[in-house]
Amino acid sequence: MSFDIALSGIQAINESLDVTSHNIANAGTYGYKANRANFATLVAGSQLNGVTVGSTTQNIGLSGGILNTGRAMDASISGRGFFVTRAADNSLQYTRVGIFDTSLDGYLVDASGRRVQGRTITPPATEPGAEGDLKIPVGAIPAQITTKATYIGNMSADWAVKTAPDMTAVTPSTPPDPTTYNTFKTTNLYDSLGTQHVLTQYFTMTGSASGTATVHVSYALDGNGLVGADKDLTFNTTTGQLNPDATPVVPGTTVNQIDLSALDTTTTPANWPKFANGANMNATVTIDYTGTTFFSGETSVASNTPDDGYSAGNFSGVSLGTDGSVIAKYTNGQTQTVGKVVLASFANEGGLTQVSDTSWEASAASGVANTDLVGVGVNGQLNVATLEQSNVDITSELVGLMTSQRNYQANSKVIQTESTMLQSLMQAI
After folding, report:
1. Could you tell me where the DSSP H helices lie in 351-393?
2. What is the DSSP letter of 243?
3. Given phi > 0 = left and psi -120 to 50 = alpha, else beta, which region is 228?
4. Which residues fall within 8 angstroms of residue 353, CB to CB, at 6 or more apart?
5. CA nearest 204: which of 228, 226, 231?
6. Domains of the chain and CATH, by start
7. Which of 137, 158, 225, 253 is spaced 20 to 30 Å from 345 by Cα?
């Protein structure tokens, strides 16, 4: 009997060594969860029959370290949750490995080729749709007309008073007289075909009275004066702040609206720009000057950009946001959020069925998957350009190796001792 008991110990230790060696071999595997062999006593009635490996468990709940990869399509989960993927057999599998890419047919997939699950967003909409495979629109995006722009800067209180330029005679070959304005700035606008046009703003200090100063703004598009599109900016000379419009388009702001909808192939007057190939602005451009100041010193510009409008662009790649957003990038510099990755949580993570070292499926023991967006409920946040490393503790595994070696030697000694005793018995007989 002692032979059998010692033999069962050696067999169990061999199985445990298999688990330990597997852990050590996967110490560098992203998202790997360490396994543990659980010994159990063999009992037949009241008779002790040795030991066996009763079960093998994974430490799924313990997160591994975070490795910075610098790759925009890598992500790790900080906290609870699993990425949800759909395998080729249509089964849902769950993983902590966030190595993603775009497939040839335009879907977000993981390193195993499984389709990542999420909620698609179809621009210009911003609300996520139903959960499913995340389709990435890899086509071009059309041009968009500019309708809004922002200008924030400092109009120098040291400017001399001048008479604003007459824009009726301004053409590309006949610009305004420099003595009629204090400074000018340009802003790029886009027409319906994505062609870029230059809007020039001429700023002229026209006078001050009763604690206020007035800066007159005149406009030219592609060097052609825009008549009737002038704007007066009124500043408080005590505080240097811009006074809001009496009847602002947006409450609390100071804006100017320039109607460019008539600028097309039939534009009048004749010296105004005509757009090529039937393009048009077909919009009123609103320039917001809120935040502009009137202090002594040099003229400065903090912001002078169109808030919308761009040329057509082709798909150039995709990246991930920390909130799980899937962001498509285009050659014109634009980005669009086209979906959001979902995460799954379980009542009992330890009850998941293992399908690979880094993937699991739901089971009756784990409960059904609760899926939702990143950061919602118990779901954690994403760390972009990082990956979760294995949670294997090499030191503990090496200590386990030494313990297994001592146990193996002890069981071998039992067999050796039993053999010696039997040999002595046979000699006596």
Report:
1. none
2. P
3. left
4. 360, 361, 362, 363, 366
5. 231
6. 2-61+391-428 (no CATH), 66-141+315-388 (no CATH), 148-306 (2.60.98.20)
7. 137
Q: In what order do the strands lie in the sheet with 300-306?
A: 255-259, 284-288, 148-154, 300-306
Cα 347 to Cα 351: distance, rounded to the nearest angstrom:
9
**In the structure encoding, which two tokens stand for residue 186, read together?**
């340009």
| Residue 325 φ/ψ, nearest 5 degrees | -65, 140
Q: Write down the residue that tokens 């490995």 correspond to.
A: 97
Beta-carbon contacts of 151 under 8 Å, excluding residues fewer than 6 positions away, are: 185, 187, 201, 287, 288, 289, 292, 301, 303, 304
Q: Locate tokens 């030494």: which residue? A: 402
Total residue length of the chain: 429
How is residue 310 written in tokens? 């761009």
Taking the chain (429 residues) in consecutive chunks of 10 residues, what is each chunk's mean pLDDT? 74 86 91 88 75 83 91 93 95 95 92 95 87 90 88 94 91 91 93 86 92 93 86 92 83 80 56 63 82 93 88 90 93 91 93 91 94 92 95 90 83 78 78
245-250 contact pairs (CB < 8 A, 24+): 249/286, 250/288
Burial status of residue 78 (CB atoms within 10 A of its CB: 0-12, 13-18, 19 or more): middle
324: left (phi over 0), alpha (psi -120 to 50) or beta: left
What pTM does this model have?
A: 0.71
- In sequence order, which ranges of 26-99 are alpha helices (DSSP H)? none
Judge if the upstream peptide bond of residue 269 is cis by omega within 30 degrees of 0.
yes
Give 270: exposed, middle or buried? Use CB within 10 Å, 0-12, 13-18, 19+: exposed
The CA distance from 120 to 343, in Å, is 14
CA 265 to chain centre: 42
Residue 426 — φ and ψ, nearest 5°? -65, -40
Within a 10 A sphere around the Cβ of 122, how many other Cβ atoms?
14
In the chain, count H helices and then E strands.
2, 27
Rounded CA gap, 384 and 324, in Å?
Answer: 9
Stated as kind and residue range, the H or E segment containing 34 is none
183 vs 165: CA distance, rounded Å: 12
Q: How far is CA 84 from CA 78, 100, 196, in A?
A: 16, 12, 43
